[in-house]
Structure formats: structure tokens, C-alpha cells
Design a protein that fits this description.
It contains ten helices and no strands. The protein has about 280 residues and is mainly α. The radius of gyration is 20 Å and the shape is globular.
């Protein structure tokens, strides 16, 4: 690893502060740009569907740039860089069914979280309204959720946080769990928290084993694509509702898929991946 072209940086509380600071600066840039545009052109960019895509990109890019310039380069002498190499075809045949199995498990657990009541009811209504206001443009939704979000979020949560923790000496399992919990917390609601943590663990496992950030990006995009299709055609992110199948059946299918392909991927498939 000493001669690797990829920097061996670590992630600490300082790195976390730098990421947050970068995101805040990105938000300030977006706010300034929006205000300037409204003053000059008398047009509110908040009503433009593309502005959501633009805002997310600026915020994540600023955070990544801050971490690169303030943490990675001063401590390693190298610029922030990741392995995006594809792997052999057989690996894809294992990780996608494993991911889909966890998606079904996460869906069942999420469905058990209340959406009514004095607390959860109002929170769920607020969250639903917020999601409905994001965009009505399917093209912008797909670009944002299926392409941009997987790229930026995997760089931050798996590429920076998880890898940085492992480089710091944290046990891989603990690093995967920590990055996944943080990934869940930033979603800001209990319904997405569960899925983000569980699916984040699969993404983290795949990244740790294959050493390529491309694979968790593809899996993340696959999950978001399924959610986007379900919302577009059924107004619900539920496979059980979409296919009119009892939730417990989908859970059983999910457990079977995840268990079988997790075993094949981690125990039977003995290919050694390296990051050079």
C-alpha cells in the first residue's frame, strides 16, 4: 500500500468537521447564487426542477473538495483518489441478488415503523410533503437519485468515512457499521434510516471486499432506481404492494436471497481483490 497511487488518509472527528464545514459552505454558495439570480433575473430558482440537482452537486463537491484540500493532501502528499475499477462478471452475479435481498428485508422492517400517532403521524406527514415537493420531473429525479446520489454519497460514506476509519485502525466491521449509521442519520427520518443502515452495510461490505468504489455505486444506483420506478408507477416504495404479495413472503424471499448470496460472496468466492 505504500506505493499505491491512492492516498492512505484517515478519518477522525476533524475530518468530520471538515466535511460538515464543506457542506455548509456549499449551502452558502447555493443561497448566494439563488439570491443573486432572483435579484438580477427576477426568477426564483427554488421553483426550477434542475435546481435540486445543481444544489446537491455543489454541496457534495464542496465537502469532498474541503476534505481533499484540508485533510488528504496535507497529510499524504497525494490528492484524493479512489479505485473505480470494474471487476469480473461473476462478482456482479453475486452482489446484486445479495443487495436485492437486503432491500426486501429493509422494506419489511421499515414497514413496521408507525406512520400514525401523535409523533410519528405528524412527522410522517411532514416527511411525505417534503418528498413530494422535491421534483415532478422524472428525468431530474432519475439523474439525481440514480446517478448523482450514488456517486457523491458513496465517495463520502464509503470512500472517505469507511475507508478512512479502516486506515485509522478501526476494525472493518466497526468501520462499516459506523459509516452505515452515519449514512442513515443524515437521511433525517426513521423510515429511511433503517434502509440506509442495512443497505449501507451491504455497500460497505462490497467496497471492503472488492476495493472498488464502482461496485457500491452501481448497487446504490440499483436500489434508488427500484425506488424511483415504484414511486412513479405505484406511488409507493413497496415491492409487496406493487406485486400484491404479503409482506412476510417478501421478507422470506429477502432473507433467502441475502443469506445464499452473502455466503457465496464472502465464503465460497475466493478471488483476491487488491487496490494498487
Amino acid at each position: 500500500m505504500e506505493n499505491s497511487r491512492y492516498p492512505k488518509f484517515t478519518f477522525t472527528w476533524l475530518g468530520g468537521l471538515v466535511l460538515v464545514a464543506g457542506m455548509m459552505v456549499g449551502m452558502m454558495v447555493i443561497s448566494f447564487f439563488s439570491t443573486f439570480w432572483k435579484f438580477i433575473f427576477r426568477e426564483n430558482l427554488q421553483h426550477k426542477d434542475w435546481f435540486l440537482l445543481f444544489s446537491n452537486a455543489v454541496i457534495f463537491l464542496t465537502a469532498i473538495a474541503f476534505f481533499d484540500l484540508l485533510i488528504v493532501r496535507p497529510n499524504t502528499g497525494k490528492k484524493l483518489n479512489f479505485n473505480f475499477s470494474p471487476t469480473n462478471f461473476y462478482t456482479y452475479l453475486l452482489i446484486f441478488p445479495m443487495m436485492f435481498g437486503m432491500m426486501l428485508i429493509a422494506e419489511f422492517i421499515t414497514s413496521q415503523i408507525p406512520t400514525t400517532g401523535p409523533f410519528f403521524g405528524k412527522y410522517y406527514e411532514f416527511f411525505t410533503r417534503l418528498m413530494e415537493q422535491l421534483t415532478d420531473d422524472p428525468v431530474v429525479m432519475i439523474i439525481t437519485a440514480v446517478i448523482c446520489a450514488p456517486i457523491f454519497e458513496e465517495i463520502v460514506f464509503r470512500g472517505i468515512i469507511q475507508k478512512g476509519l479502516i486506515n485509522k485502525g478501526v476494525q472493518p466491521l466497526n468501520a462499516i457499521l459506523a459509516a452505515s449509521v452515519i449514512f442513515g442519520l443524515v437521511h433525517g427520518n426513521p423510515w429511511q434510516f433503517v434502509g440506509a443502515v442495512l443497505l449501507g452495510c451491504v455497500l460497505g461490505l462490497v467496497y471492503y471486499k472488492t476495493k472498488s468504489l464502482l461496485l457500491p455505486m452501481l448497487l446504490h444506483g440499483f436500489n434508488n432506481l427500484c425506488s424511483t420506478i415504484l414511486i412513479a408507477y405505484t406511488k409507493n416504495e413497496s415491492f409487496a404492494d406493487a406485486f400484491k404479495i404479503p409482506e412476510w413472503v417478501m421478507l422470506a424471499v429477502g432473507i433467502m436471497l441475502f443469506s445464499v448470496f452473502y455466503y457465496l460472496f464472502t465464503r465460497k468466492y475466493k478471488i483476491h481483490y487488491s487496490e494498487i
